[in-house]
Amino acid sequence: MDIAIGIDLGGTRTKIGLVKDDHLIAHAKIKAVTESNLLDHLGEVAEIVDQLMAQEGLHTNDLSGVGLAFPGIVDSQRMKILSRYVKYTDAHALDLKQWAKDRWKIPLVLENDARAALLGEWQYGAGKGSDNLVLVTLGTGVGTAVLIEGKLLRGKHFMAGNLGGHMTINLHGSVCNCGNIGCLESEASTWVLPHQIENAAGYAQSQLAGEKEVNFHRIFALAQQGDDLAVHIRDHCLKAWSLGIISLIHAYDPEKLVIGGGIMQSKDDILPVIQTMVRKHAWATEENIAIVPAVQVEFAGILGVSYLVNQH
Ligand SMILES: [Zn+2]
């Protein structure tokens, strides 16, 4: 049997799945322990994998490989984590291939999480049948990945297509946590919301003033009720995402652009605005570029790395 293990390391949760013949046959989610080191966390993940395998009556020799999606820049040839902005301080020093070999005697494939999600959408979701795709995830940060003529864009330093969230869209913006100025992500993402809200004019008069944890779902709801600050933030962010997406379209010329991520639970408030902005402001093409929501919302990353395992 050819069973691939898929692991999608997220900012708040790690998703684990077993994939057989393109189908997810078992899955689990655990809390991503941000204080911990990655090796300890992977130990925890491996125990869950073993439990899922026991549940399904599977053995180590049923496994074809393990695919790991990581939220940062990774070297997907040497299977090393390169990113400086990692929560797990030991991550870049780990020999992940050796870890998989020691644990299950199987090969390991490593890929950036946005690229993994893009592959999942391409093969099994919203991007099916389109070989020129851009994926944007709107969430804690803004993730992007690009497929051109059926090939993942990676580049010399494995960054190509991944830094769409760190394109400057505001000349007068603040310094992003990446060091750049006025990034799409530092203009419009969940991590920047608290700061944006507290420093806004009209904060005291807004219903947002009393709220501890603010997310976009709440912003959209309050904006609907006419809360001035919520309206301001909603419109600012919709414009920022639209302009970012227009730049991605100009850079990569996709036939389809897929938008995923947690903020897309408000997709009815988001998609029509972005589609209108793109039609109005993007460089004209003969055909419209389809801007569509992600389909494999939960498990695109796991399906994507499993696809890579099968390709190897
Ligand atoms: Zn940035």
Write out key terms for the chains shown.
binds zinc ion, 12 strands, Nucleotidyltransferase, domain 5, alpha/beta, 312 residues, single chain, 9 helices, 5-stranded mixed sheet
Structure description:
The protein is of the alpha/beta class and 312 residues long. The protein folds into 2 domains: 3-112, ATPase, nucleotide binding domain (Nucleotidyltransferase, domain 5, 2-Layer Sandwich); 126-293, 2-Layer Sandwich (Nucleotidyltransferase, domain 5), CATH 3.30.420.40. It is built from 9 helices and 12 strands. It has a 5-stranded mixed beta sheet with strand order 3-2-1-4-7, sandwiched between helices. Helix 3 (113-124) crosses helix 9 (300-311). It is globular and about 60 Å long. Bound molecules: zinc ion. Zinc ion (ZN) is lined by residues 166, 176, 178, 180, 183, 185-186.
Ordered list of secondary-structure elements with their pairings:
Elements (H helix, E strand, L loop, with lengths): L2 E7 L3 E8 L2 E9 L6 H18 L7 E8 L3 E2 L4 E2 L14 H9 L3 E5 H12 L8 E6 L3 E7 L2 E2 L31 H4 L5 H6 L17 H9 L3 H25 L3 E5 L6 H15 L8 E4 L6 H12 L1
Parallel strand pairs: 1-4, 4-7, 8-11, 11-12
Antiparallel strand pairs: 1-2, 2-3, 5-6, 8-9, 9-10
Helix pairs in contact: 3-9, 6-7, 7-8
